[in-house]
Amino acid sequence: MPDKLLIAGLGNPGKRYADTRHNIGFMVVEEVASREREVFRTGRGDYLLSRLKLGGREVLLQKPLTYMNLSGSAVLHALNYFKMTSDSLLVVADDIHLPFGRLRFRNQGSDGGHNGISSIVASLGTHEFARLRIGVGNDFMKGEQADFVLATFSVEERSQLKEIIERAANGVSDFVEHGIESAMNRFN
């Protein structure tokens, strides 16, 4: 595994989206940064960045500010700026195809219909990067997917959200320290 990693938590910037399902990627990287008493600062591109040491590696936590559907340009900029390749990347994103709270690490794969991951695939020109998908459920009618992912969590979901974010942050730490196979075995 590379000595330097980029962990890109996907979401949308601004208060309007802060507590929405689509922003669970932001929430997870914020938890990782908070545990290390680090903060996010403006990056060299259209993103916020937090730099820390974890498991003997330099870890760059990223929150793209491009809005979800254009996440790829921010991720590509950070990889290029820090002279990293896609094998140094972990993308953390929401997934409507997984039950609420379910975690799924993969070392590569399709975009699964996720516009943020699709943008990253298009920008990088490859599907070969690690990702952590976090289930946000799929309790919506046909044609209402966008409204669902841009809505806040229900009261019942919010009661479980802190634990899910903590478990996902633990998974990120495991990925950094032990690699994708360990994270898949322990958290999927």
Strand content: 15-25%
Count of helix runs: 6
CATH superfamily annotation: Peptidyl-tRNA hydrolase
Q: What is the CATH class designation?
A: Alpha Beta
Q: What best-fitting shape do the alpha-carbon axes yield?
A: globular
Q: What is the CATH architecture descriptor? A: 3-Layer(aba) Sandwich
Estimate percent helicity.
Answer: 25-40%
Termini separation comes to: 20 Å
Sheet bearing the most strands, described?
7 strands, mixed
Question: What integer is the average pLDDT?
Answer: 93
The rounded Rg comes to: 15 Å
What structural class do the secondary elements suggest? Answer: alpha/beta
Strand order of the largest sheet: 2-3-4-1-5-7-6
CATH topology: Rossmann fold
The succession of helices and strands, N to C, reads EHEEEHEEHEHHH
Are there runs of 5+ residues with pLDDT below 50, and where?
Answer: none
- Overall strand count: 7
Which labels suit this protein?
188 residues, alpha/beta, Rossmann fold, seven-stranded mixed β-sheet, 6 helices, 37% helix
Plain-language structure description:
- With 188 residues, this protein is an alpha/beta fold.
- It has one domain: Rossmann fold (3-Layer(aba) Sandwich).
- 37% of the residues lie in helices and 22% in strands.
- The chain is built from 6 helices and 7 strands.
- Strands 2-3-4-1-5-7-6 form a 7-stranded mixed sheet.
- Strand 3 (47-54) and strand 4 (57-64) form a beta hairpin.
- The two termini are 20 Å apart.
- The mean pLDDT is 93.
